[in-house]
Amino acid sequence: MKLHLLLALLVGGASALHLRSETSDFESPMGDETLLQAGEILRQEAEECLSGKELMPPEEEEEEASGSEGAPEDEGAIHSVSALDVMDKDFQCPKEEDTVKLVGSPRFKINRFLLVRAAKKFGQAQFVCQRCYRGTLVSIHDFNLNSRIHNSVRGLNEGQIWIGGRVVGSGRNKCFRWVDGSSWNFAYWAAGQPQTRRGSCVTLCTQGGHWRLSVCNKRRPFICSY
Fold it and tell me: Which residue ranges are recorded for the region named Disordered (predicted)?
């Protein structure tokens, strides 16, 4: 009897040891490589949206959410492009003397760029680019293009011009997007920028070529890409 009891205890101990060994070597059915890839995709999406930092500190976020002056108009200016077609029956494209074709280069064969000196709000400027030139406000993806545009506009009697960047989303989910849908992979912010409490639409400074956020209802010259 004692012999049978001893054998039962030995067998039970060996089974428990084997179970612990199998549990410690457990692998995800997805595989380590798949899990790492999924984590990398999420990380890249977060970086694209927030560029590694929040667009503004929490206290500024609260200030804007509480109803800063002109905030509802800003959002309307961004999203009302299609409505302009219905609202403005007397719409006319800019006169040729109000536009300047920017000098291109072999690197930019696909796109042509046009400076429109007739000042418009951000949403109106995007509408003009679409309706008159079958394009959009310009998106800038490297320093060379930014420098070319800056060199072409620095003689303007205007401090800033519209380019095609804007803030989308709300709260901590705010991020930058180009109106043409291309990826946000370059920025050239002025010192202290971006500050979304000062606006939601991106301008290029004619002196220095840096970028600033501005109230979208401000009328400015703009650059179309087509």
Answer: 52-75
